[in-house]
Amino acid sequence: MKTGYLRTAVLSLMLGLCCASPLRADDNYVTLNLTCYGSGVATRTESTNISRYDPKTKKYSTTNAQYTSKEPFEGTAVIEISGDTGRIKVPEPLVPALNTRSDGWFAIRELVVTSDFITGKVKLNFLNNKHLRIDRRSGLLTLDGSSGNFSGQCEAVDRYTPRKF
Question: Which of 2, 34, 84, 110 is most buried (most C-beta within 10 Å)?
Fold first, then answer.
């Protein structure tokens, strides 16, 4: 009786192993180096001094006015992913004056790598967060946030490729 149960269990296990999709090395530990070329729009805040004449006091007064504008740009993003950590070099027009980058890199937080997408968040500073999304099939990168956005086409880069010059 026990041998029949054991045979059934072993047969079920073997059948399950045969029908299951094989594990690939990159399913558990992904290493990617990407260069993404594209364009975006950055929000810029500028200030100017305005002089006004007050007819009551017959004097000029100067005030400071601030305004925002949207500026289109072209740029490159560089992304490195190793296991469950990632980092990104954001195109310079998106980088605020006060920022959290280290040696030019921003950490990718809440990184999720699936077979179809790579998602995460990039904290540029205490007010500015970007949502990162890369479609692994099309290579499309999008970085969206309140102070601007960027989208580009990504290409995998081999770190060990010899230099061109």
Answer: 34
Interatomic CA distance for residues 18 and 109, integer angstroms: 37
109 near 122, Cβ under 8 Å? yes
Total structural domains in the chain? 1
- Is 66 inside any structural domain? no
Residues in the chain: 165
- Residue 104 belongs to a domain with what CATH number? 2.40.160
Domain annotation covers residue 51: no
Report yes or no on 30 lying in a domain: yes
Whole-number Å distance between alpha carbons of 100 and 97: 10
Express each pLDDT in 86-133 by its tens digit. 999 999 999 988 888 899 999 999 999 999 999 999 999 888 899 999
- For residue range 114-127, list pLDDT tens digits in order: 999 999 999 998 88
Domain that holds residue 98: 25-43+71-156
Longest dimension (CA), the chain: 109
Q: Does residue 8 fall inside a structural domain?
A: no
The residue assigned the tokens 């029908």 is 19
Burial 87-103 (b: 16+ CB within 10 A, else e): bbbbbebbbbeeeebee
